[in-house]
Amino acid sequence: MRHHIRKTDVIIAGGGPAGLAAALAARQAGFDVIVADCTHPPIDKACGEGIMPDGLEALRSLGITLDPSHGASFAGIRFIAGERQVEATFREGAGLGIRRTVLHEALVEAAKNSGIELLWNRRVTAIGEKYVSLDQERILCRWIVGADGQNSLVRKLGGLEHARAQKLRYGFRQHYRLQPWSRFVEVYWADCGQMYVTPTSSDSVCVAFITPQKSVRLREALQHFPSLASRLRSSTPEGDERGAVTASRRLAAVHQENLALVGEAAGSVDAITGEGLAMAFQQAAALAASLVRGDLSRYAAAHRRIMRLPRAMSALMLTMDRHAGFRRRVFGAFEAQPEIFARMLAIHTGAASPSSFGVANTLSLGWHMLATT
Predict the structure, then answer these.
(1) Of residues 33, 285, 316, 276, the one with CA closest to residue 171
(2) Coil, strand, or helix at residue 334?
(3) Which ranges constitute the DSSP H helices of 47-188?
């Protein structure tokens, strides 16, 4: 008896936000798409749960419109270090705080409605030139996409593991039943790391802690953030604290022959930037455009462009994390000229070109950093 052999244009290993976004973009471009994942939805992950305006715009280009009914909008970013703080609103639109499970459910529903075949609880066991094996089934395909996260098996099987030395930090997330007190995502700074507070509904917030110290957990770290600890003292934690590793990793290549990587499988910047989802959604659109042209080198060029600014911002913010004196000087400069912080936020979210920062702003920031004690 001849067994039926399944065929598709594109098979994507990894059914998280990056994989589903890549699937939606490829489907929009006219490809038949299969997504396979070894788990089952909704897929959760420890993260800050905030999507920046550029990430929401990238989602809209994929046909997904998220609004405050899915979570809670936020108007900008506020940095807080002890008694010092600086804030800026987004130039274009608002961000959205949304539970990771709610986001995943929305992406899964959009994928189903677009005709994408979703195979859950299916593990990649092998890849070849024109096929992927899922457990015991071989699926023939034209393109293979690895969207299976930091520890990507597809990346390993495809021979794309070579990377520069990676830097690891550790992230922890806890939800609290508490009415949001700010229209900003608040980022609290201390020597042990950063606390992010993101509104996720009218009566809940997500608190995420990122640290280089593997043994420190969110709740014990709150003692280093007294003003935040005071706000959370009377609130009720929801669910268990979840942890994850956040990596700074740059790969030598993100594609070879008919295989491409997206999301954290394709390299990553530290979660300190808050741009992980936005980058993945932008990569999805760039990959689909490259598939249409049959040329993955175009995706490689787009991937470098998408990652360039987040990497630069990550380097600045991680220097602030490691060096308290430098952090104090940066905060002093931002307090003296808050418009510089606003301009940097606009560049970070794609609302302004890096060239718009200008020589005058660079010199002014440098002068205040030197003058601040």
Answers:
(1) 276
(2) helix
(3) 53-61, 100-113, 153-157
CA distances from 263 to 148, 188, 269 (A): 8, 26, 10
How far is the C-alpha of 297 from the C-alpha of 136, rounded, in Å? 32
Same domain (yes/no): 57, 122: yes
Token pair 């993100």 is found at: 254
Same domain, 296 and 341: no
- Residue 303 one-letter amino acid: H
pLDDT exceeds cutoff 90 at 26: yes
**Could you report the per-residue pLDDT of 261-287, keeping only the tens digit for each?**
999 999 999 988 888 999 999 999 999
Do 301 and 359 lie in one domain? The reply is: no
pTM for the whole structure: 0.91
User: Is 262 inside any structural domain?
Assistant: yes
Cβ-proximal residues to 140 (8 Å cutoff; 6+ apart), any chain: 5, 6, 7, 8, 130, 131
Residue 185 lies in a domain: no
